[in-house]
Amino acid sequence: MILPIVAYGAQILRAEAKDITPDYPDLKELLESMWETMYYSQGVGIAAPQVNKPIRIFLVDTAQVFERMDDEEKEEYDDDPGIKRVFINAHVQSLDGDEWAYNEGCLSIPKIREDVLRPEEITLSYVDENFEPHTETFSGLTARVIQHEYDHIDGKLFIDYLKPLRRKLLKAKLDDISKGKVSVDYKMTFPK
Questions:
Q1: Which fold has domain 5-189?
Q2: Residue 134 labeled ligand binder
Q3: What are the boundaries of each domain within the chain?
Q4: Cα torsion through 10, 11, 13, 19, rounded to 10
Q5: Which pTM value belongs to this model?
Q6: Gene3D superfamilies given for it (predicted)?
Q7: Other CB atoms within 10 A of residue 135 CB
Q8: Which residues are catalytic?
Q9: Is 117 assigned a ligand-binding role in the annotation?
Q10: Exposed end of the chain (fewer CB within 10 Å): N or C?
Q11: Are 55 and 18 in contact (CB under 8 A)?
């Protein structure tokens, strides 16, 4: 089932999400709906707070990005062929490497893209959809998407990394999004 994406300005996007247990109600259906919603919205990642669930879940599919790249583009990243993965109860163990800029966007903040600096690597502990534990290091584009989605479960947004002047220049666009004055090709819910 395609779920509505929560728009910028909603409180849930600023709250720290909670860990869940294996008996979380209808978890399998939620994960299926999140995948369906992410693909329908043409995203490469989605976090539970973006579908109005205050829990520590996010999904990432960077494999689809690499499938669309030519060989020359792939050489820029060390994480080809990417991943398709569910992250539950994720917690950062470390962030390493030099920061690098990449033009990011967000399903909850449509029609705004900005360069964001993030470290090259992230090491996470998490459980998968079967609640099997993992501690893993990710790099390149995959690390970038993971950091972006991880921020959602910590109540942060990519615009928080922008310089104050740039955020001030975006204020009118952000206000329009929070008021529902934006047109997208997917379902959205707006703050009341």
A1: Peptide Deformylase (3.90.45)
A2: no
A3: 5-189
A4: -140
A5: 0.96
A6: Peptide deformylase (3.90.45.10)
A7: 10
A8: 149
A9: no
A10: C
A11: yes
